[in-house]
Design goal:
Elements (H helix, E strand, L loop, with lengths): L1 H26 L2 H7 L3 E6 L1 H6 L1 H10 L2 E4 L5 H4 L9 H12 L3 E8 L7 H5 L3 H18 L6 E6 L12 H6 L3 H12 L4 E6 L7 H15 L6 E4 L2 E3 L7 H13 L3 E10 L8 H18 L3 E6 L8 H5 L17 H11 L1
Parallel strand pairs: 1-2, 1-9, 2-3, 3-4, 4-5, 5-6, 6-8, 7-8, 8-9
The structure holds ligand G3I.
Ligand G3I binds next to helix 14.
Length: 345
């Protein structure tokens, strides 16, 4: 009799616990839940959408504790004419972020893409390239000192086979453009957190091994590379995805002394031809969140957009991609609830 009584009491406690957990999860935002894990939860943010789409603005300001400037800080937007810096849009985003106590991630100081036209005319040799790059990096970092203190300094420098990507910076300066960029950024703001950022580098492969070896060597030589950003653009149909391999890789990066950020996660669905797409998507988001939570060096988990109607996948790959946490009407998807569950338990 006594035994049965305890079973009842145990069962009741369990049910109450589950109910309270469910209630807490329902009521809390991603941001609130991530605070308890000491994790920044971010999204990339677009200026136009922030101003024109009320639902987007509500989600951006309530669900996330970090914003990455999606396009407005790229070189073509920031310096459309040589020496004529256009800070207006990002300044407005900074102000709005401050009003909502949201941290900002600067994206991106050096990339082979999103370049203004004048670069191909003015950057003709090593000296002109160094002058242009140093000025660009230091003007931006100095302008945002005190309001943006984390930057993706160099973006997408390696090819899949582990060779360096052919960009105007590699052609003119050579591989040194990478360590130089970090040094120039550090000079402009000694307190900033400086990241290398790439895609396809979230597991061990030819590209990520080449990246880690080079970044580690530079770091040993005193180049101020604080962290590595793993973009984590995932194709739900890609059978190479492996939570264990991601965990192994994050641990290796941590052991090499780098901070880690998941910087651009999305999970596109257009290549997955079965009815299970939403579950696979939720599972992938959940797996990467779990790895991040289990890796002390991982301090940020950022998704590349808020709702499916403002996504580069929808615009540039397929309207069936639907890669984000909220649908085109701003309604939460299964992946959103999965992330909340991972953060809560
Ligand atoms: O806003 C203009 C619009 O006014 C114009 O009519 C239209 C015509 O092409 O273009 C619109 O701008 C586009 C912008 O996205 C906003 O949608 C640009 O052409 C287009 O090039 C731009 O693409 C961005 C891409 O980077 C290139 O800069 C994507 O939004 C952005 O999500 C994507 O982000 C990159 C990261 O920076 C680095 N990692 C990969 C990631 C995905 O490609």
């Amino acid at each position: 009799m006594k035994k049965r009584k305890w079973i009842w009491i145990g069962g009741a406690i369990l049910i109450i616990g589950i109910a309270i957990g469910g209630y807490l999860m329902e009521k809390q935002t991603l941001r609130k839940l991530a605070e308890n894990d000491d994790l920044l939860i971010g999204s990339s943010i677009r200026y136009d959408a922030l101003l024109e789409d009320d639902t987007y603005q509500r989600l951006a300001t309530t669900e996330f504790s970090s914003w990455t400037i999606e396009n407005e800080m790229k070189m073509d937007a920031m310096q459309p004419e040589q020496g004529a810096f256009n800070f207006v849009k990002v300044d407005e985003m900074v102000q709005m972020a401050e009003e909502h106590d949201i941290k900002l991630r600067g994206h991106v100081l050096v990339w082979g893409e999103a370049l203004p036209e004048w670069v191909s005319q003015q950057v003709v040799d090593r000296a002109s390239a160094e002058q242009v790059l140093k000025t660009h990096i230091q003007e931006l970092v100095k302008h945002y000192k005190g309001s943006i203190d984390t930057f993706d300094v160099v973006n997408e420098a390696w090819n899949d086979d582990g060779t360096l990507r052919d960009t105007i910076w590699l052609r003119t300066i050579g591989p040194d453009y990478i360590p130089l960029a970090f040094q120039w950024a550090r000079e402009a703001n000694p307190d900033a957190k400086l990241y290398y950022n790439d895609y396809g580098n979230e597991m061990s492969n030819a590209k990520s091994e080449a990246m880690l070896e080079a970044l580690s060597n530079w770091k040993k030589d005193g180049i101020p590379i604080d962290g590595i950003g793993m973009q984590t653009h995932v194709d739900a149909a890609d059978s190479r995805f492996s939570k264990n391999r991601i965990q192994e890789w994050f641990t290796r990066i941590e052991d090499a002394g780098f901070d880690i950020a998941v910087t651009e996660m999305d999970v596109k669905l257009q290549n997955l031809n079965n009815g299970d797409a939403k579950n696979v998507q939720a599972e992938r988001f959940g797996d990467v969140m779990e790895v991040c939570l289990d890796t002390p060096a991982c301090g940020e988990f950022t998704v590349w957009g808020i709702s499916d109607n403002h996504s580069w996948v929808t615009e540039q790959e397929s309207p069936n991609g639907k890669p984000l946490l909220f649908d085109e009407n701003g309604q939460p998807k299964k992946a959103y609830n999965t992330l909340k569950r991972k953060l809560l338990f």
